[in-house]
User: Fold this.
Amino acid sequence: MTNRSREPGRIDLRAIDAPADPLQAQQVIAAAMSRMAADRESNGDVLTSIVIYARPLLAAAAALLLIATGTLIITQGRAQADQPASVLATWAESSHVPTNGELLAAFQGYDR
Amino acid sequence: MIESDASLVGRARLGDTAAMETLLRRYFRACYVVAFARVGNRFDAEDVCQDAFIRCLEQLDECREPDKFGAWLIRIVRNTAHNRGDYLRVRSAEPIASHLHLQSPARTDAEAQRNELRDTLMRALAQLSEVQRDVVLLHDLEGWRHAEIAVHLDLSEGMSRRHLSDARKDLREILGDYATLEPDHD
Assistant:
């Protein structure tokens, strides 16, 4: 493809550039290959950083999730215990006769 | 036996650097000429090639027709040259090398003549369309045949001949006595 033999009809354009130089190709290709290798290495560093920090981040996220779930369960349990139906059931099981004050306390805010 | 582009692309995709180098070496000169046609000097053309080669290697998985790797690579070179905006400079190209060192008077005369001829040719080439410039440089400077040009520039052979004929006609008109011509047989 790089045969420069003089062929009839062609315009002599050789003055615009040096002839094909194997060293030129070698230098440009080597520079491109080494730049690409450097890019890949730096991308590798980013991946390594992600891998290094991924474990502690995942552990922290799991701990937060555990704490949040526990808090939710406890809060829900307390809210249920304060419900009038739950108080009445406790009285019925223990055959307790509530006083007026206990009744008012149990049903306070019932109409909400 | 020469390994096909498709086979080399397959190996290059698996990370074979020798295959990558073979592919780039195979098309270096065509890429260089296409870049040169747009940026107008050797140094910028080499930079364009280097950037285009990196893009090509990074996007090798996107080459849908590995057997037409050359055409795909040349498209990347063209786009890279356009993105740099350097192709416009071809209209005012001035050889950097001529300003780099002091020369003897005799050598200066010879080099001055050569530089003048080169500038004249570059200005004449700048008057052509990009595809005409690619075709005439690949054919008349690099010695490619129309079949090769057609494959690598995504043209028919007929269009390649047409572009060459038009480019030569325009260059003869622009260059006048500068154009060194011989009868056409290709």
User: Anything to note?
Assistant: Residues 104-175 of chain B form a domain with the Arc Repressor Mutant, subunit A fold (CATH 1.10.10.10).
